[in-house]
């Protein structure tokens, strides 16, 4: 990537990752019922991957709740493969 800053808007069950030669870092979370359960401590993150509601979206493009999308920005030094923590 040539730029040193990225801004990502996320809605639904797709995730964004920052991948460098030395590591990868998940930048966004799913907007699913199973993810919400995991965030609230009702189930483990591992259980969320197999949960029957893992594909039921809380937010989707075109829905009223999509207005509350997740935005993440991240900075890194180009050429070094290192990244600072994402800023929400």
Short description:
With 88 residues, the protein is an alpha+beta fold.
Please describe what this structure looks like.
This protein is of the alpha+beta class and 88 residues long. The protein has one domain (5-83). The protein is 15% helix and 25% strand. The protein has helices at 33-39, 45-50; strands at 5-10, 17-19, 24-26, 70-77, 82-83. A 3-stranded antiparallel β-sheet has the order 1-4-5, with no helix packed on it. A hairpin with a 4-residue loop joins β4 and β5 (82-83). The protein starts with a strand and ends in a 5-residue tail after the last strand. Residues 80-88 have low confidence and may be disordered.
Descriptive labels:
88 residues, alpha+beta, three-stranded antiparallel beta sheet, 2 helices, 15% helix, disordered C terminus
Low-confidence sequence ranges: 80-88
Spatial arrangement of strands, main beta sheet: 1-4-5
Describe the largest sheet. 3 strands, antiparallel
Global outline: globular
Put simply, the count of helices is 2
Overall pLDDT level: 76
- Roughly how many Å apart are the termini? 21 Å
């Amino acid at each position: 990537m040539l730029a040193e800053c990225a801004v990502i808007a996320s809605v639904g069950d797709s995730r964004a990752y920052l991948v460098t030669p030395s590591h990868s870092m998940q930048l966004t979370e799913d907007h699913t019922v199973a993810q919400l359960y995991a965030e609230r401590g009702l189930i483990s993150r591992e259980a969320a991957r197999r949960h029957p509601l893992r594909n039921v979206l809380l937010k989707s493009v075109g829905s009223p709740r999509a207005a509350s999308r997740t935005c993440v920005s991240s900075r890194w030094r180009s050429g070094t493969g290192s990244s600072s923590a994402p800023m929400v």
